[in-house]
Amino acid sequence: MTTDQAGTATVEAREWLGAAATPGRRWLLSAAGCQALETAFTIVQWTGLALVAGDVLAGDRPSWLGLGVLFGGGLLAAGATWSTARFQAVGRQRIAHALRRRLVAGLLPAGQRDGEPDPATAALATVELTDDIADFHAQSTPQRLSAPVSMALILSVTAMLQWPAAVILLLASLLIPLNLRLAGLFAKEGADAQAAAGARLAAVVLDSFRGLQTLRNISALERRRSELARAAADLNATTIAVIRRASLSGAVMDVVITFSIAANATYIGLSLLGYVRMGAAPGMTLFRGLLALLVCPMYFQPLRAMAASFHSRERALSAVPAISGFLAEPSSNAERVSPAGEPVTVVLDNVSLRFPTADEPTLRGLNLTGQAGSWTAVAGPSGAGKTTLLSLIAGVRAPSHGTVQWLTPTGASAPWLGGCAWIGQQTVLLPGSIGDNIRIGRPDAGRADLERAVAAAGLAEVVARLPLRLDTPLGEGGWGLSTGEARRIAIARAFLSEAGLWVLDEPTAHLDADTEAQLIVALRNATRGRTVIVATHSTALARSADLLFGLSDGTIHTVREETRV
Hints:
Mean pLDDT: 75
CATH architecture of the largest domain: Up-down Bundle
Strand content: 5-15%
CATH class of the largest domain: Mainly Alpha
Shape: elongated
Structural class: alpha/beta
Strand order of the largest sheet: 6-9-10-3-11-12
CATH topology of the largest domain: ABC transporter transmembrane region fold
Order of helices and strands: HHHHHHHHHEEEHEEEEHHHEHEHEHEE
CATH superfamily of the largest domain: ABC transporter type 1, transmembrane domain
Number of helices: 16
Low-confidence stretches: none
Largest sheet: 6 strands, mixed
Number of domains: 2
Number of strands: 12
Radius of gyration: 33 Å
């Protein structure tokens, strides 16, 4: 990469990083305002402390005014601090959530890619690098916006108390930008090395887990253990280097700050003793001197925070190339139709799909219409492309040629993720109660909604015999469910989502005949008025469909069509 290309990439990374803050910007602006208020209230608090200290040193009892100002300012400052942390946390959460939503959409196989994403890099981007970006914005944005206001306020107060002390602060602050620049240069090199070492370790760990049986069979465990140790040692070394650079830049700043505070303390002390007199400066009193000394360290606090944010900024910039390549662009819902509660007609018009690495299309020239409120089944041998076809209908993939549309009375749109209910061969049960697992279909569902979903899925008898009914825990240490019962959990989730389109991928696979028959009845009951597209090998499930297609050699043909009343 040439110097010009590197410069362009850096500018683009900075622009992308700035745009990533948009989902949480409103909250971070509120945090900046609270941070400035915290500075103002802290000055009030120190004013009260100076009044109380002056009274005590003079041998008098502290005045009620001084105590009131001290405790009132402290409470207000604590409230502003709490509000700052709260707004920062919400802003950080919004940014991370928005990035992860785009990552999930980008990592799914929708659209055309030159190749599949590297699993280790994708996992690192989703789990760690997203947090690096959100942490940077949550830390730096409020500080960057509030620092000028806070520093100007402190400098103004110091100038009103003793303008020579303000001059000392101003002269010392002129040395800070050079230190911040050095901190940024140190941080960038270290952050790049740390990101590369982290990605390598993640790749080695993931490959080790995926190929553990093979490594054991070829007696390569010891060699892989050594490789893991080297990767971990590289990450440890780069992390220590980052800490060392941060400590060095922090030490330089500490010297400047310490010198400034010491100079001010010396000036104030000599002025109080009468050794130094500046005719144009206000008369030095104990109150003025104490308050100037108390607010002096506050002047440098925003600068210290900004120096620390240089390290998080370079970590975030290092994360941008790794994460931005996976992201899907934010999409607008303005042109989407919502199938929830509405009949949906699915139309495939001359649809073909060819994977980037394949020589021939997997699917070609498909024309299919799934009428609203009907069952459409697709049968065919394994590897014929049934699951791929369902992924096109559900919006997981985009066709290479042709169009897939969802038609409802309110309009038409291309399929979009989350717009339909999907039930596959495997039902994932998460730690929690049965109710929690069903509520995944609609997190805000109430108890009555859950009970309707349970009844629709044919789970009522199963739930009735459980010790805690819907609150019965599942998983390790909890209740176990059979494969058929787990599928009914999936049906209840889909019913709760109120989707008008259900896409089913071998929903009765690996079930005995009796359980399959019961599940078909449950599916029929739960999908009344819904459109169902199902891929299956099951003769019984194919017979229950209103329209049956056969899929072979990438093409589709009608096998049977009948009208059900």
